[in-house]
Amino acid sequence: MNDFDLFIIGAGSGGVRAARYASSLGIRTGIAEGWSLGGTCVNRGCIPKKLYSYASNFNEDFEVMNSFGWKVKNKEFNWKKLVSNKKKEITRLNSIYLNLLKDSKVKIFNDYAQFIDRNTIKVGKIKIKSKNILIAVGTKPRRLEIFNNSNLISSDEAFNLKKLPKSILILGGGYIAVEFASIFNGLGVKTSLCIRGERILKDFDKEVSEFLMKQMEHKGVKFIFKDFPKKIIHEKYQYNVFFKEKIKRYETVMEAVGRVPNLKKLNPNKAKIKLTKNGAIKIDEYFKTSVNNVYAIGDVVDKIQLTPVAIREAMNFVDNLKSRVKKKFNYKNIPTAVFSTPNYSFIGYTENEARRSFKKINVYKSQFKSLKFSLSNLNEKVFIKLVTNALNDKILGLHYVGENAAEIVQGFSVAVVNGLTKKQLDKTIGIHPTCAEEIVTLRNK
Ligand code: NDP
After folding, report:
1. Would the pLDDT of 1 be above 70?
2. Catalytic, out of 218, 234, 399, 432
3. Which amino acid residue places its CA nearest to atom 22 of ligand 1?
4. C-alpha dihedral over 28, 102, 48, 215, to 10 degrees?
5. Among 161, 152, 206, which residue's Cα sits nearest to residue 356?
6. Which stretch of DSSP H or E encloses residue 140?
7. Which residues on neighbouring strands pair with residue 121, listed in sequence order?
8. Which of 30, 172, 294, 402 has its CA 20 to 30 A from that of 383?
């Protein structure tokens, strides 16, 4: 029998951070992972996605280079090399995670865990008892039942395709759909994105996400709105996709219609752990599930599915375990980015949310072509939108579409999180010539 103070199920971003931090505080900690260490982010999410996004962006760089006088003779892209180099990098990261856990004296179990009852877990054949249990098993791609027999790919498979298809249809209009549409389009695949609604990135600022959509359209992505396939038939070399009024053909079809909690192997019902109506683990404000000693963090709970959030939740949870005064997590003002081409990053309120929540707001906007693209025929533009509370001048939201949007918004997030005002932004002198300097010189409402 293995006995722990804290046993963590799932060694992704949240689970590993909780394990290392808890162990460093003297808590006897074990962790179970049935797959590679690092979870979705490292193995089939943020990291490979960003690598592929870099790969796809180089395509346009040739054109930009050309406008500065450079000439490249044989522009050629090797998909297999990208996949293989990506695998090497992920293997390197997996071993870093392993060493971090070992160095922190966390006991690692390389298998899937399942609940036997509310106090007992089984990992492979090993029974485990622990004073506290933390569920951090993350999510997996949602698969729509109507396409069950159509052999579609999800983001999991997209990373490891044997060859690049000539054409792809991506179903969905959220983070994953938009990012992969940019990746495939940049790599030269004829890319279409299909959504049931009116626009991509429904929870982002309407005007800014529509601007992004137009930018992506200029680069070649085709958008299909207010239509969604009823049926898809897979033949040997193509998929026949049945839209409302026509049938279209693609070499590959990818589902990117959200992610669902990864609970199949865990058997949470054996411990009588309650789920939300979306099938996520239900928790209170202190990460506690419906069962006293069992907690949950990260994508498997119905909050915000972002790696840095899971990491902070992990630390908040461990702090609470150690301390008598329990802290609640602050889910406000979390910056985020879609690594589309161009990137869209934002923090705080969208314009519409701000209009609904505050009496009077000011909206400052700027749109321009960056100096880097000025010599080329590329149409890519930067769009910046700043939303403030007109009554006290506080910054409510910042939205940025353009190269390095995430790097820029990360820095300015400090201002938003700390309640700075537009006047305080204006005190800052810009760094010239940059795109980000526009944020401290915004005048036009
Ligand atoms: P999202 O929730 O972002 O988007 C899901 C998309 O699928 C929406 O367009 C939604 O349409 C559509 N959809 C959902 N159900 C159906 C259905 N039954 N039929 C048709 N369309 C449907 O999910 P993703 O999978 O893109 O990403 C999951 C999460 O992972 C994100 O929310 C994000 O938190 C995280 N993530 C973060 C990234 C980053 O930080 N850069 C990158 C990738 C993922 P509708 O809008 O109409 O509901």
Report:
1. no
2. 432
3. 257
4. 50
5. 206
6. strand 139-141
7. 115, 128
8. 172
